[in-house]
Amino acid sequence: MTARIIECPRCMIDGWPRGSCDCKRRFVKGTGVIIDWCPRCEGIWFDGGELERSFASADRQIEIPHEALAGAFRCPLGHGPLRSFHYPDTLALIEMCEHCFGIWLDGGQFREIRIVRKHRAAEAEKKQREGVRGAICDWIDAKIAELSED
Ligand SMILES: [Zn+2]
Ligand SMILES: [Zn+2]
């Protein structure tokens, strides 16, 4: 397990010195999921490689949803501004890097999506999401489910 210090996008905006938030890289038990988790702001960075693999196995081309806009957050791996788009039925914004396809979820947004997810799972008929944004949201749902079982 290689330690990699990421620059937490939230802590960077809040003006904390680089590396001071002590982000931890961890594997989620029983899954292949790798995340970087910031103990200070509780945000999560999902490595883009895994999302890419999941798109490749579904025979689709990964891309940034066309409605995504450049926001204030920057890629913790140094690729510049992240692009953000809404998670449906929430105020939560998902931040995504158009170069490495990594995804940043703020701590509060992670909690909000987790709550909405439970709601969705309770619906007998899950409405189908469309397009690349839908596919990315489904992927995030699956990752949050795996994290929550941890
Ligand atoms: Zn942080
Ligand atoms: Zn990046």
Features:
150 residues, alpha+beta, seven-stranded antiparallel sheet, globular
Tell me what you see in this structure:
The structure is a single chain. The chain is of the alpha+beta class. It has one domain. The chain has four helices and seven strands; from the N terminus they run H-E-E-E-H-E-E-E-E-H-H. It has a seven-stranded antiparallel sheet. Strand 1 and strand 2 form a beta hairpin. The radius of gyration is 15 Å and the shape is globular. The protein starts with 8 loop residues before the first helix and ends with a helix. One zinc ion binds next to loops.
Describe how the helices and strands are arranged.
Blueprint: H1 9-13, E1 24-27, E2 34-37, E3 44-46, H2 48-57, E4 69-74, E5 81-86, E6 93-96, E7 103-105, H3 107-122, H4 131-149
Antiparallel strand pairs: 1-2, 2-3, 3-7, 4-5, 5-6, 6-7
Helix pairs in contact: 3-4
Bound molecules: zinc ion (2 copies).
Total helices: the number is 4
Attached small molecules: zinc ion
- What is the molecular shape? globular
If you compute it from the alpha carbons, what radius of gyration comes out, rounded to the nearest whole angstrom? Answer: 15 Å
Describe the main β-sheet briefly. Answer: 7 strands, antiparallel
Secondary-structure element string = HEEEHEEEEHH
Bin the strand percentage: 15-25%
Q: What ranges have pLDDT less than 50 throughout 5 or more consecutive residues?
A: none
Domain unit count: 1
Report the average pLDDT across residues: 84
**Major β-sheet strand ordering:** 1-2-3-7-6-5-4
Q: Give the % helix.
A: 25-40%
Strand tally is 7
End-to-end Cα distance = 18 Å
Label the structural class.
Answer: alpha+beta
